[in-house]
Amino acid sequence: MSSKRVPFYQKRHKHFDQSYRNIETRYLLQEYSARRAASRQAATYQTSGLGKTTCRLCAKRLYTSSDEATHEARSLEQKSLHASEKKRIRFVTDLAALQEEIHSARHLAREQLDKIAIQRMVEERMALERYAVEETISRAPEILVRLRSHTVWEKMAVRLYVTVQGFPTPVVQWYKNEELITPASEPGKYHIESKYGVHVLEINRAHYDDTATYTAVATNVHGQASTNAAVIVRRYRGDEEPYPAGILYGHLPLPLDMCFTHFDVQFLERFGVTFGVEGDALTLRCGLLVTPELKRLQPRAEWYRDDVLIKESKWTKPFFGEGQAALSFTHLNKDDEGLYTLRIVSKGGVNEYSAYLFVRDADAVVMGAPGAPMDVKCHDANRDYVIVTWKPPNTTHEAPVIGYFVDRCEVGTENWVQCNDAPVKICKYPVTGLFEGRSYTFRVRAVNQAGVSRPSRMSEAVAALDPIDLERLQTIHLDGDKKIVIYQDDLEGDVKIPGPPTNVHASETSKTYVVLSWDPPVPRGKEPLSYFIEKSMVGSGSWQRVNAQVAVRSPRYAVFDLAEGKPYVFRVLAANKHGISDPSEITPPIQAKESIVVPSAPGRIVATRNTRTSVIVQWDKPKHEEDLFGYYIDCSVVGSNHWEACNHKPVKYNRFAVHGLATGEKYIFRVKAANAVGMSENSQESDPITVQAALTCPSYPYGITLLNCDGHTMTIGWKLPRFSGGSNILGYYIDKREAHHHNWHEVNSSLIKERIYKVEDLTENAYYEFKIAAANIAGIGQPSDPSEHFRCEAWTMPEPGPPYDLTFCEVRNTSLVILWKAPIYIGSSPVTGYFVDYKEEEGEEWITFNEKPESHRYLKVTELHEGKTYVFRVRPVNDAGIGRPSDVSEAVLVHVKPGTKEITSGVDEEGNIYLDFDCKEISDASQFSWSKFYEEIEDTDRFRVETIGDHSKLYFKKPDKEDLRTYAVAVSDTDGVSSSFIMDEEELGRLMTLSHEIKNPTIPLKSELTYEILDRGQVRFWLQAESISPEASYRFVINDAEVADSETHKIKCDHSTGLIEMVMDRFTIENEGTYTVQIQDGKAKNQSSLVLIGDAFKEVLAEAEFQRKEFLRKQGPHFQEHLYWDVSEECEVLLLCKVANTKKETIFRWFKDGAGLDVKELPDLQKGVCCYTIPRLSKKEQGEYKATLSDDRGQDVSALDISGKVYDDIMLGLARVNGKSASELKVHCTPEGIRLQCFMKYYTEEMKGSWSHKDSKISSSEKMRIGGSEEVAWMQICEPTEKDKGKYTFELFDGKESYKRTLDLSGQAYDDAYAEFQRLKAAAFAEKNRGKVIGGLPDVVTIMEGKTLNLTCTVFGNPDPELVWFKNDKELELNDHYVVKLEQGKYAGLVIKGVASEDSGKYSINVKNKYGGEMVDVTVSVYKHGEEMPDIKPGASGKARPVPPDEIQWDFQVQNWNQFSNGEEEK
Fold it and tell me: How many CB atoms lie within 10 A of CB 598?
């Protein structure tokens, strides 16, 4: 399992379809294969002489098997006389098999000889053709690049170049002024070179006398050719530059079109089969080695697609130089799919390389739409008409194409116009309505039931011109290279009305249109012509003008709207400005029908192996292959029923190499044909084929090494060939020869099965070399390169010999496993261990990986670097020391290959533990090799290997702890596919547990045993199995006693669903215990238990009792839904409940805390909903609310305690309603400060409302007071300052959502509010300190004449007010009768001494200071002695009347107040 690094130039596909080869070579092979019988007979006689040669390897390979078979046959005939009849039959059978094998070997040998003969005949034929080609070459010399004149300075070197071709090769001689130049005449002066057809004359250190005319004359037997040039040598003068820039040697310009005679071209890194997507950019590159390498002289690189030369365009950009040839695609389309060939052309021949480029459809814009059409081309262009054709897309997954849309675009614009309104069903469409003289490009879109595809690549530009116009031009040549160009019209004379068109016929027919063509009238006249077409259905007798609206200027026209299946006749009229011609002759009847039909399906399809990723598909052509575009091939993985397109552009041949397949997968193929009408039906599917490389001979063995020598024999070993050829290697042939001898001698006459062999009969101290060839069923491969020279000298050293057969497996990103075989020569003592050394491929110093010798013959090397390439060697150790190292291994690239798989573990349906590995890259020769600790497993008592196809399993027969090991698998004849698996204790335990479960099956349960309380208080015990058969049995066990089906324990089982249940009619305290269900279905068993003891049982019992009581409760009037609360949009709290099973006599009542509630209107029980409304909820409404139902059948009660959490939840509900209806924040100023208010339907401080300032929450304080009333929430800013500016937010939270109202109190809003606050604050201060009467004066005073009246009151004011008394609104004049007094500054009085009747009236006191005051009235009534006291009712005059301050004084006071207030704030 060696893992060899693959060179970069071999990382592409190396196998190609034979259809890519030269067609003539294929025909030649077919011609020679017809002579195979004669060749075989001739080969038989020719090989009889091979044994006489010194090297009999080839002869032995062909006839050893035959001689052995003959000898065994004779021996069998002698023994058969004494054997029993049964043994004779067995021997005869073996003999027949052996004869068949001999026949196969002979057949293969004859085929090889046939191939050699064919190869020789092909070479002879090619040599003959080469000679014929050479005979056609012009023999005379030909100057390809002529001499150029030069002007140089003295003492400079000058070179003259000339390129000559001819056959035989011409001889070139140089002349100076017609005198022959011979280098020997002036040694060192002249140097003449001639190489690859380029001839050079070099003049060293040119002198002034070298100024002359130089001539090169080329001569051969067929003729002579010459060329000359002038060389001017100038002398240096003081005022001139001695060496002008640009003429030094090495800067002399060479002609760019120089063509060399021969180049040796080698392709290095080649582009392989490539896969692209429409719309992508892509480059095909090929590294080249061109010999000789000349900067100014290169061969010509040409790119071909399907044998059509590719030119540079907006889509393709070829490049050649810097050691590579490249073809870049700026925008891939399916038009670019095909076989690409790079040809390097020179006079020496053509070197070429080919590979296929696949371009799949880009993702559709509309799901299910088809791919874009391709290969859009224009035909038959005329003044206003052109035919557009295209090829249909492959619809593998999509619905079939139902038609196409054709778009046109005038060159120079980007405006695409759709040409047809309805989809055209065939891949051809005549586009009319073009403008003469303009150029157009076209594109096509496909349509199916899902939608429209992406547009195709646009066509080449085509001009709307009449090609006949060029034919009507005549040129008359005059002397002096002058010419006159005239039109045919000028020669026809004065023609006014044109003649009728001629030769009217149908150039193309279709189901939907007919294209008419005709010849213009002769003579036609100078005026521009137009045409009118008329049609008539056969038998109708009437003519209908087709183009009545638009005249046709081209002698072509597509007639649409024809009845399918009906014949028509047509005629054409020509017209100019003078009139209309007579109609043309009537055409024969023309019917609108397809000229071609849909092709039939291709015939038998056969798939054969090609490479590891490709298959050759061949098929029979369809019976009807009219005008085929080509074929589409689809593939599908067997069993998937999913088809994929193999090609996206029709292929013309009935043989195709399908690439990009998965190695090891089985595929089937189908083919369909395509033409302009549509697609054929799919062909029959091919037989399934596994993707593997075709059978070939194996490659050569390598790594031949000497393992032991005793002086007369040598033991050699070698490694497996890197490629087995797709079948098992049958054995090896060895040849030997002594050093410096020419002839090889065979070592073995029969195949050697092992890769180690002792070569005998050798000469001591002689040197020998060996080569080895491997053989398989396909034949004998090429022999290996000769080995090193091994000296036949006896090994006597005490150290062991070299290990051998170093192989590698499990190559990962940083590690690999190396394996080797023990030395054949062990020395004086057994080998005790090994050292493993490694180094980078280009490195010099070896690194020893293991510090101590490794006793096993394998080692996992770690700590490697990803992407690096390493080589390894192994050194053995015994008691005598370290022995000879092994040969250095091949280079190994440390990198995980894409798609690397690992071993997986599992348990099959029978409970067997296995390790599984699959490999898609296997061939017929591949084998899975399982090992334990990297030693092949041979213990059949404990292990069993089962391999089917690309899957292999290692079964453990008796798994136990002895199987805790590392297991590995390697697949031969692959690129190092291998893996390992560590079976640790945990993994083995898991697998054994799973195995036990499978071997001892249990019935899987969807649900364990559980219970359910039914609505009548019944208890249902049940479980459900995944699936059980109708024969399954079950039983219920309660407290170790089986329960039978009865009225109290109803047991049943639904086998279809696996449901088993038991219903207990009455669950009582006696039912406490353990419940078990046991199930058996064949061998499978299971059981489930449920323990109902203690609290668990009490919970079930309580639930059962509750459900039973609920059932009884619902027999009378009851609450279907118990009391619950809700909040209305008006912020009313509603207590609701739903009742059921009521009647007219049923009584419903409300209670709170045991006391009945009076309601205005009793609820209508028939509606089923009862409601009690709490208009404004507050704490006083907290309490327990009950609703009762009662009648003669029973009663029911529902209660709701509105307190605690319930009360809080209701408040949250109120907050939700209020939050949605809350107004925006408003500013209201008071004398204390600025108040922000939010109005809502109902508000209480128990709602979760909060205020914040600048996103910081505000708590109620002296500065910020928070409060509210029923309809408003407010927050007052007392004594606002600048710091109180900003955004204020009021938030209501309903438990889930927040409702916020914000106000930005800054700027003008703050200034206005602050001014209003100052005004109100000043007004409040004035109101507080103004003069006023605070008590003492009555409203009415009744007094008898002669007495003294004392009116006393208490006054207040700051500063002290002024007092003025009035009588009947006139200021009272004070005298002895009226005395005013003021005591202690606040007790004012009016004393009226000896009152009389005249003193009756209204007395007023005016108390006033600078802030204002008030006037209080007192009514005084004086009655005479003896009269009754009058009953005087107080009037409105007794109330205090405010007295404003003086205005000027008030403004002054307000200003003083503001200054005072600001001063207080600053303090």
Answer: 17
Burial (0-12, 13-18, 19+ Cβ within 10 Å), 185: exposed
- Under 8 Å between Cβ of 91 and 80: yes
- Is residue 735's pLDDT more than 60? yes
Rounded distance between C-alpha atoms, residue 949 and residue 690, angstroms? 10
Q: In this model, does residue 1093 exceed pLDDT 70? A: yes
| Cα angle, residue 1231 at apex, residues 1226 and 1236 outer, rounded to 5° | 20
Task: Answer for the pair 425, 431: CB distance below 8 angstroms, yes or no.
Answer: no
End-to-end distance of the chain based on CA atoms, in angstroms?
A: 99
Distance, in Å, from the CA atom of 290 to the CA atom of 351, rounded to the nearest integer, reads 11
CA distance 503 to 517: 8
Give 1280's Cβ-side CA count (13 Å radius): 26
DSSP state for residue 436 in the 8-state scheme? T
Other CB atoms within 10 Å distance of the CB of residue 213? 14
| Torsion angle of C-alpha atoms 535, 537, 542, 544, degrees rounded to 10 | -30
Count Cβ atoms below 10 Å from residue 596 Cβ, excluding itself.
14
- Transcribe 460-480 into DSSP letters: PPEE---THHHHTEEEEE-ST
CA distance 1002 to 920: 37
Query: What does the DSSP assignment read for 1110-1166?
Result: HHHHTTSSEEEEEEEEEE-TTS-EEEEEEEES--TT-EEEEEETTEE---SS---GG
Which are the contacts of 785, defined by CB distance < 8 A and separation ≥ 6?
700, 702, 771
| Alpha-carbon Rg for the chain in angstroms | 59
Q: What's at 260, amino acid-wise?
A: F
pLDDT of residue 1145: 87
Taking every pair of Cα atoms in the chain, the longest distance, rounded to a whole number of angstroms, is 191
Residue 240 has pLDDT above 70, yes or no: no
- pLDDT tens for each residue of 1229-1247: 988 899 999 998 888 888 8
Q: Contact 671/631 with Cβ under 8 angstroms? A: yes
Q: Output the average pLDDT for the chain.
A: 83
640, 643, 646, 647: CA torsion to nearest 10: -170
DSSP structure string for 1018-1033: -EEEEEEES---TT-E
In percent, the amount of the chain with pLDDT more than 70 equals 87
Residue 1183 — left, alpha, or beta (φ > 0 → left; ψ -120 to 50 → alpha)?
Answer: left
Candidates 1021, 1044, 918; CA nearest to 974 is: 918
993-998 contacts at long range (C-beta below 8 A, 24 or more positions apart): 994/907, 994/911, 995/907, 995/911, 995/912, 995/913, 995/959, 996/911, 997/911, 998/907, 998/909, 998/910, 998/911
- Please give the Cα distance from 749 to 71 (Å, whole number): 15
- CA distances (Å), origin 432, targets 446, 505, 557: 20, 18, 8
Q: CA 1028, CA 1059: separation in Å to the nearest integer?
A: 9
Looking from the CA of 212 toward its CB, the CA atoms found within 13 Å total 18
Residue 1365's beta-bridge partner residues?
A: 1405
User: Using an 8 Å Cβ cutoff, are 373 and 446 in contact?
Assistant: yes
Q: Which two tokens stand for residue 2?
A: 């060696």
3-state secondary structure of 1350: strand
556-580 pLDDT tens trace:
888 888 887 788 999 999 888 888 8
And the tokens for 1252? 């914040």
- Band (736; pLDDT cuts 50, 70, 90): very high
Give the pLDDT score at 1268.
86
Helix (H, G, I), strand (E, B) or coil at 1343: strand
Per-residue confidence band for 834, with pLDDT thresholds at 50, 70 and 90: very high
